[in-house]
Amino acid sequence: MRIALDAMGGDYAPDNEVQGAILAAQSIPSTTELEVVFVGRESDILASLSKVDASKLRYSIFHADDIVGMGDEPSTVVKKKRNSSLYKGIELHANGGAEGFVSAGNTGAVMTTATLVLGRIKGVSRPTIGSFFPTVNTRPALLVDAGANIDCKPRHLYEFAIMGSIYYSQILNVVTPKVGLLNIGEESTKGTEIVLQTYELLQQSALNFIGNVEGRDILFGEADVFVCDGFTGNIILKFAESIIGVLKAKIKQHADKGFLEKIAVGAMAPTLRKVLKEFDYQEYGGVPLLGVNGVAIIGHGKSSPKAIQNMIVRAVDVASKNVNGLIATTLASLVIPTDNN
Amino acid sequence: MRIALDAMGGDYAPDNEVQGAILAAQSIPSTTELEVVFVGRESDILASLSKVDASKLRYSIFHADDIVGMGDEPSTVVKKKRNSSLYKGIELHANGGAEGFVSAGNTGAVMTTATLVLGRIKGVSRPTIGSFFPTVNTRPALLVDAGANIDCKPRHLYEFAIMGSIYYSQILNVVTPKVGLLNIGEESTKGTEIVLQTYELLQQSALNFIGNVEGRDILFGEADVFVCDGFTGNIILKFAESIIGVLKAKIKQHADKGFLEKIAVGAMAPTLRKVLKEFDYQEYGGVPLLGVNGVAIIGHGKSSPKAIQNMIVRAVDVASKNVNGLIATTLASLVIPTDNN
Questions:
Q1: What is the ipTM of this complex?
Q2: Is B267 on the interface with A (CB under 8 A)?
């Protein structure tokens, strides 16, 4: 099982990528025979490898000169940055040189490049990015779309629901994940025209559709898969990602008030850390790009070694399951009225 | 200063309404000469009053037989529930019997009824509801629209920005509040067609427009006024409102793990409570209905006496300032290209 890792993607590349790969090798059963293909500048990768003990890691290096930055326009990568680690890694996967691709780089660039190089699964109008949210339950919630498609038609949202449900079912071993349509009220009469039409499609579908869900239902895990357009999804995701930092800042402000407060905050720190850890998005193994002919896991630019580890483990998991085959089969069997396209 | 209070609005009405009014009377300087007009079923209100010491509260009771429920369709109130506390209270305010109206009832019903009975301020296309969010700074952020208008055109969003900025400036005594357009990226090229056009309008405006802001910027208070449509706003608001409950549930789950964990959680409880209190939406004095010819403050159905108190205090504050006059003056001076309507 070879996983192509964009070694230059994250903000702390390639150090975190190398360390994450070593952690992944430790956490995956040896029967999987994981090989990480570091894609990027060989000298940089070797320098990072020289700082750590990589003796337990099976790896190879696939040299790529160029780097896609966070500010690069996604659509330009295919034209102007074919020598980048991002492009070369996806190409390697497309050519069969790896069974999956992982990057903590420019999300839009991975999305656009993967769609063009890997192609879409038959029947998919638009690939989408899902994102996991922690919940009060033992299993997380998957929000889809988390920012890839800002203008969506009912058919697109319907496809997101199908892809999200299949991914959730396969990766979290839940037979019929609960699918909810993110809306401003539970009643079926609520929402924009697009949301109302999507509701109809979902209700007629074979999905385990539980109806409209609201913003408050996400962290309480009232559904497993929350469907929305990428504009709403991206804003909620970034809002959610800010919570830990805000709480830490608030607690620090409190500790700075005096000696006794500092002691109280110090006493609660270990417990609180455990609680907040469950809200740490680093733990959730990156976000999947769904609907492309391949396996692509995208992580935050600030991904820690632990986050990189989880992304590689996730890519191995997805690659060993039949997510894309199920998406193709399900979409092929759909009959959707054309006026809902 | 008479404030009409919908005594039957909240989930714990009229008990919480009566207790909140007493708290408000204690916290407002006696020079204000606050009189709370309880609007609703006289017998119920008297029963609630009999349980408490209302000797410091100047009040009157304005009887109304009917009640608007949380499930009532907002548009039906004006036709079918003219004897409700909600309708009667707004009517009393419209007729000059009170200088403001406060309700913890059906938000949509207050919005619709207030718009019809009080009328819109000249120049306002659509009244809007703003909502305050706590931030890491000393002042909160105002999100507008928080759920009143789900389909918005650039002109509407522009008006929300103006009304929000004036309200923020007047109520929080900030001369030029920072206005941000909620979007999926900071670059001016990001967003839907409607958001892109709104960006142009805001950039040409006299507002202190700081550009696009993202979901993560809300709790960090990167702007004072965050502008978005009511679909996005409502989902973020409800998501945000769920955070305290989710954290409490997580902490409880942790405490249930064993004796030592229970002690650790117990030790941190007082400190954490103070920190979480700053995230308690009850503290923020309800949400203002902006753009109507009057003063209407709307609270959560679950409003505590403390929340009702803050709403009454806020209504007094708004009524004593010239928010609506400034909105009218500013909108009258606008020149907006008609193709952006």
A1: 0.90
A2: yes
